[in-house]
Write a structure and sequence with these properties.
Its EC number is 3.6.5.4. The longest helix has 17 residues. Strands 3-2-4-1-5-6-7-8 form an eight-stranded mixed sheet, with helices on both faces. α1 packs antiparallel against α4, α2 packs antiparallel against α3 and α5 runs parallel beside α6. Helices cover 51% and strands 13% of the residues. The chain binds guanosine-5'-diphosphate. Guanosine-5'-diphosphate binds next to α5.
Length: 296
């Protein structure tokens, strides 16, 4: 049977005879397991290092509280540190700006960007009673534009009519104008994705950003891509100034490592998670739940 990190830490540390405080030796033994578990959960190496350093600083010399075992105590320190690094409070999408509020959706092709755009639009419409307009800026892939239109019908959210021959910036401007005229609260701009981060993609998205001044720039990233997701997040953030991350495929086998890595590397909050293919499979991000998942 798979043994979770919590069990492993308990079995290592509970064998110790009780001494007043946790020694560096005790903590190092535990940290070897923590490091292994984080790497198994696909947390980036640099993040594993800074994480274990922080846990060491908190744990060495900590008095063992009488009511708990040393194992439980270290599990708690690891849990608390995970929650802190994941971002203690769940953040929500901010609409606190003059309408129509722009939300720019960026990310690699296949990350779930278009599906997530529709999921968020649906949520804003149903839960917050907002009038939302969606527009696809993927001029190279007519199928992506069609996909957004189909999803729009499915969730009951308007999509900007497709006009052939326009550039991404032209479509984005037209979307903002249509939203102004039509009294929309929110405009969701679904930018083109590529299989890898490329220069043309970044230049185009940056131009759209400048032209429309979105209030949120949400990076959609696939939780299953692990370490790659970190490099992607860094590249998008450097070029576009990401305001939040939506992590998709959290329904899969991912143990949450990508969440920890992306948050640590970009410092940007994870705002929502995708938990399935259906349009209602979108949830708030709860750091404590992800911490428990990593702890196993
Ligand atoms: P895009 O190329 O980034 O726009 O990606 P799509 O939105 O077309 O999504 C690619 C595939 O991933 C589709 O089959 C989606 O249904 C699926 N997908 C998106 N989000 C999730 C998620 O959170 N969980 C699962 N299991 N599948 C997802």
């Amino acid at each position: 049977m798979f043994e979770g990190l919590s069990d492993k830490l308990s079995s290592i540390l509970n064998g110790l005879t009780r001494r007043g405080a946790l020694t560096e030796e005790d903590v190092n033994a535990a940290l070897r397991e923590v490091r292994r578990a984080l790497l198994e959960a696909d947390v980036a190496l640099e993040v594993v290092r800074s994480f274990t350093d922080k846990v060491r600083a908190r744990a060495v010399g900590a008095e063992v509280v009488k009511s708990v075992s040393p194992g439980q105590q270290v599990v708690k320190i690891v849990h608390d540190q995970l929650v802190e690094m994941l971002g203690a409070d769940a953040e929500v999408i901010s609409l606190n700006a003059v309408p129509p509020v722009g939300i720019l959706m960026v990310g690699l092709q296949g990350s779930g960007k278009t599906t997530t755009t529709a999921k968020i639009a649906r949520r804003l419409k149903d839960r917050e009673n907002r009038k939302v307009l969606m527009a696809s800026l993927d001029t190279r892939r007519p199928a992506a534009m069609e996909q957004l239109a189909v999803l729009g019908k499915q969730v009951g959210v308007d999509t900007l009519p497709i006009v052939a021959g326009q550039s991404a910036v032209q479509i984005a401007r037209r979307a903002m104008e249509a939203a102004r005229l039509g009294g929309y609260d929110v405009v969701m701009l679904d930018t083109a994705g590529r299989v890898t981060v490329d220069e043309a993609l970044m230049v185009e998205a940056a131009e759209v950003r400048t032209a429309t001044g979105p209030h949120e720039v949400l990076l959609v990233a696939d939780a299953l891509t692990g370490q790659d997701a970190v490099n992607t997040a860094r590249a998008f953030d450097q070029r576009l100034g990401v305001t939040g991350i939506v992590l998709t495929r959290m329904d899969g086998d991912a143990r949450g490592g990508a969440a920890l890595s992306m948050r640590a590397v970009t410092g940007k909050p994870i705002k929502l998670i995708g938990t399935g293919e259906k349009v209602d499979a979108l949830e708030e991000f709860h750091p404590s739940r992800v911490a428990n998942r990593i702890l196993g």
